[in-house]
Amino acid sequence: MSFSSDIKQELNKTSNLVNKEMVKYELMGYLISGNIDVIPKNQLKFSTESDYNINRFSKLLSNLNIPHNIEVIGKTFVITLKIKNITSIIKYQNNKICIEEPIKQVKEEYLKAMIRGIFLGSGSINNPENKYHLEMVFHQEENLDYAIQILKKLDVKAKKMITQNKYSMYMKEGEEISRFLALIGANKAVMQFEEIRIQREMRGKVNRLVNCKAANLNKTINASVEQIAAIKKLQQTGEFNKLDDNLKEIANLRLENPDMTLVELGTLLQNPVRKIWRKL
Question: Can you give the pLDDT at residue 129?
């Protein structure tokens, strides 16, 4: 089962169907999502391969006494309902479903319910072990903009994307996705997501540390090679014996310990020092 399916299964078990207003706003979210299509005979069709999702949508409709029909076509569950039965809940005009209710007049708990309905209707989220990406699709740009404004009011940032009549909002930041999951009531998913996020951050820090150490090691080796070449040149020309005793000592230590840094070589001197200045 995918991470998205796990979240929708968890949300399906959310017991908030007693509050009729909450139910209405969650249903509104479903109705403006990208999986709702207008079909002949003035009907709407909702399609999904998730039995948890179709079950949740059916519960919302039944709770509000809205007649609907459920079919199974291959692996897809399909709910159909007459448009006239939802016009008291949401506006339908010019073959478009839209919401005209000002956001500032709606309680935050109802706005959260609507966002939950949108995610259940057409939302998806990647396995966070691979990458952070949450997306929700709409048929109409107006509804996309409305949803983004809701999230902005609820302090969650989402970006807008339009491609070939596909309208969607997306998030790629781990923190924003975590806040979104908490907002829609997917508490178990939040804990799982945060655990994965912490592990990813730890792995990232370890990798950066290893890369940093590797880079420093390469610098040490390159410097050591240059120093050893200079020392050998001094030996070949007879200039080495003209060096003072301190420089001779550090030069001989460099030849014996090519992998050490100058600071590490300084600790091996007869009179150890904390910093060795390069004089060769």
Answer: 87
